[in-house]
Amino acid sequence: MTSHYIDNEKLTTELSEWKEKVIQAAKDKKCGISELDELPQVNNYIGKAILDIAKHYATKHNFSGYSYKDEMISDGVLQTLKMIKNFDGTKMMRNGQKASAFNYISLIIFQSFLRRIEKEKHQQHIKNKSLIEHSLEDLMDEVSNLSFDINGTDQPTEYLQTIYNDHLQRY
User: How far apart are the first and last CA of the chain?
Assistant: First the structure.
């Protein structure tokens, strides 16, 4: 038997026991789990397992080249702590085995990594677009004082405006 960095059976047991505390807290307050203001604190084993899974995922080849791995890990841990209350260790998976806490946590972390990558790509797109806009505006200001023939027009600003508009439409 190989040694894994997370003991799935122990994690599933610990998480199921924590979930029982959540259910009991909801019964004590006579409300649903989603209506609880504060959830019971997860124990150190669960917390360490969540962090270890997130760190391990960050080393996978499909996530290794990103400079914002710390943000990805933080997002993964935070999202897992938000969603962990929905884990149900009594459910059976499609293959007939009992629900796996490791799989549940891994999926949440994986999805949060993808969301972080999309956020970062969007931010990079905004930065690039802003840089292009400012660079072209500066160039247009400098060239507007020149008077020479570009592509048959004596208006360099019109020509640059056309380039500028074409560039903006691409981004």
Answer: 53
